[in-house]
Amino acid sequence: MRCPVVWGRQGVGQNCEGFLxxxxxxxxxxxxxPDRMEEACGVFAVLAVEQPVxxxxxxxxxxxxxxxxxxAGIAVFNQDKVRLHKDMGLVSQVFDQEVLARMPGxxxxxxxxxxxTGSSRVCxxxxxVLMTRxxxxxxxxxxxxxxxxxxxxxxxxxxxxxxxxxxxELIAFAVQQAVDxxxxxxxxxxSALKLCQGAFSLVIxxxxxxxxxxxxxxxxxxxxxxxxxxxxxxxxxSSETCxxxxxxxxxxxxxxxxxxxxxxxxDIVPERQSWSVEPNRLCVFEMIYFARPDSxxxxxxxxxxxxxxxxxxxxxxxxxxxxxxGVPDSGIPAAIGFSQESGIPYGDGLIxxxxxxxxxxQPTQAMREAGIRxxxxxxxxxxxxxRVVVIDDSIVRGTTSRKLVTAxxxxxxxxxxxxxxxxxxxxxxxYGIDTDTQDQLIAARLTLEEIQEHLKVDSLAYLSKExxxxxxxxxxxxxxxxxxxxDYPIPMDEQLLNSKLMLxxxxxxxx
Length: 511
Fold this sequence. Notes:
Layout: E1 42-47, H1 53-63, E2 71-78, E3 81-88, H2 91-94, H3 97-101, E4 107-113, E5 128-132, E6 135-145, H4 148-155, H5 167-180, H6 185-193, E7 198-206, E8 209-214, E9 223-226, E10 235-238, H7 241-245, E11 250-254, E12 259-263, E13 271-274, E14 282-283, H8 284-290, E15 296-297, E16 300-301, H9 302-317, E17 323-326, H10 332-342, E18 350-352, H11 365-369, E19 376-378, H12 380-383, E20 387-392, H13 399-410, E21 415-420, H14 442-445, H15 448-455, E22 459-462, H16 465-471, E23 479-480, H17 482-485, H18 494-500
Parallel strand pairs: 14-23, 17-20, 20-21, 21-22
Antiparallel strand pairs: 1-4, 1-10, 2-3, 2-4, 5-6, 6-7, 7-8, 8-12, 9-10, 9-11, 12-13, 15-16, 18-19
């Protein structure tokens, strides 16, 4: 049963065909995909009486825009009504002041999406809003379930009206059905989560408060903080601390792995309870690339961690060169660390067009062949005649990295040495990152020497797994490193595992 008061750009809608039709054409992106891991989603929530929660959620999502650029949405609770607005595009494209002014309330749930389960269509945008016997609720999800097919069968009771193809909607239906069986909100949420296997950081808004949940392994991050003075009882939940800081909220703590936290308006201290106990496995790529460098992990900014892995990379694989450059933006802190440790001067050799996000307008093949450069442009006066060390955070497919090397040589670099501030990506991710099948991962198909030859670089080296973990100043058990070593912490269906592990030797399935 859908929520009876749902408002969107085109008015009230109930299904995928007519629900919140976009003013822009929706299509699958074409052309080459980036040569790095692709985004996770961003979730945000704010509970603050007599505050402009829709505006605050807008800015929170704006700070989390790097986590997903396909769609954005906000649901606002105002007494017994929920207003929902979501559409394809960036936060600044989906919302304006006129829209936000029509969304008063005390609780807002927000979401930025990058699709990992379900196609890039407006009906798959979040939050998901459903009605229960206790009233409406809104759910936003970052992560990916590995048992989505089984969960759909479990919640398909003949009355569920599926309007999307996402695992997030399936979680919402599991919660709805648990509530309608007579459970209260905390019991219903715990009951629903017992059916879910995989990675999920969730924010759930209800008329009885805000809930924040992480899966037992804590694969995706989630934090919370105070908005204003602690005695105000105003709370904010965000995928990263940068979402708190943009609206002046103060970090209090992480939602711990396997924890359910309940916030109620006016409460100075939230209710915290453990619902699952598993070994902690935070995705290490959050540290290396996904999260913003100013976000805090383990008590420090990721900028500091990324500088350290650059220093470690220099100790492991230094080279005689004239200049160190980083691939903007995620490669720059590691490049600075590499320069500091090696003594090779650092310089800006690549300029990024910072106004380029995901675009629905793609260059034609002829334009690509002509060398159109949408995102990165080299600086010939900096690079000419130089032996260059270029630092990037990862190589996934090897396509754009090869073009980058060609561009550096065309700009006058006499040597190009590539250093990667993570180990080789040899395995796909099933937990909320889009890495495709294993046959598309260059390090799963080629040796180091073959990759070096493919990229046309003078030398190539990756950061060791040990160096990556030690630089985090945390035990290796705190991280999921499956994309580097195939050690998947969450058991999954053999068919799903084999669908992406096409190149693995017999026996790895079901590991």
